Write the structure tokens for this entry.
Amino acid sequence: MYAHFPDLHRIMLPPLRIPIYQPELGGNEKAYVNQCLDSTWISSKGEFIEKFQSGFARYVGAPQAIAVSNGTVALHLALAALGLGPGDEVIVPSLTYVAPVNAIRYVGATPVFAEADPTTWQVSPDDVAARITPRTKAIIAVHLYGQACDMAALADLARARGLRLIEDCAEALGTRIGDRHVGTFGDIATFSFFGNKTITTGEGGMVVAREVTLHRLALKLRGQGLADDREYWHDVVGFNFRMTNICAAIGLAQLERADDFLARKRRLADAYVRGLAGLPVRTHAESPGTTHSFWMCSVLTDDPAQRDPLRKTLRAAGIETRPVFHPVHTMPMYARGQTGLDVSVALAARGINLPSWPGLGEEGVREVCDVVRGHFLR
Ligand SMILES: *Cc1c(COP(=O)(O)O)cnc(C)c1O
């Protein structure tokens, strides 16, 4: 945290009053976890795994779902199940959390970075199209901060060019295009249940594949590649990416409250729009025809030079923020001199994620907005 503010390093920062996120565990979490402990079903078998998987599949409108140990292995599993590997190029936005890019490397494939749309911040389908080569095998769409990617355009492109389409929905539980939940547009989709995601299991993830053959392969790879017809016989190199029953117990309790979390997060987003009106910042607006789930309520400062001073003012008032993700093509292990990613760089330089947990309330948002107003009007 302090590393962003070298000049604040030596002075005393006030304690955090408003964190950027905190999980809410006030439902059936404790009762369900205690059922695991009382029954001794604490490992990766047990009733909560099945209940969480089927409840989650129903929630997103998918035929089936596979619970895994985190959102990063969910991506790794998805790419492995699609058979991606050395020599294959996978197009991925540069403006993203690093996990989907790392997953491309885990399977030995090559990430090719695509540009962001300046309005939605999501990957630009036109730019994706321009980066397709004979080696391209897949596209990863990342629904960033709860906003939906243009899945109609990306699905058309994937179909026309014979590419696989993966959706990283880690930040997009509750995000819809029309009535349809994201994660149901591509071949395979992944979710994360890290502590700051819209629902959490501590660490956890989910893989959702549309076709039953792909689903069965992902299921098999999750559990060490166990053969269907012979005990303790393995006929592919699999992984242990299983979720524990304890995590699934927490996940089921969280899922029961997902609609409530999402409704309250939407009210926060609306309150930010009202509270920041007239100030030199732009909120991350919902695209027409979609439902933004506002995982992280985010703003761009009009002037990039205002971004860090504003974050500093907020921190001095005990309010935690985050910078929008650094473009991955600028990180040392992925810097191969790719060009045409200036929008991603510009968004990253101007973007701030604001406190976004459901329990913050409109009262909390007002407090944050007052500090932002004071910063600009002083
Ligand atoms: C959180 C996140 C992940 C990874 O999830 P973990 O559960 O932390 O491994 C992947 N992709 C995106 C876009 C994320 O935000």
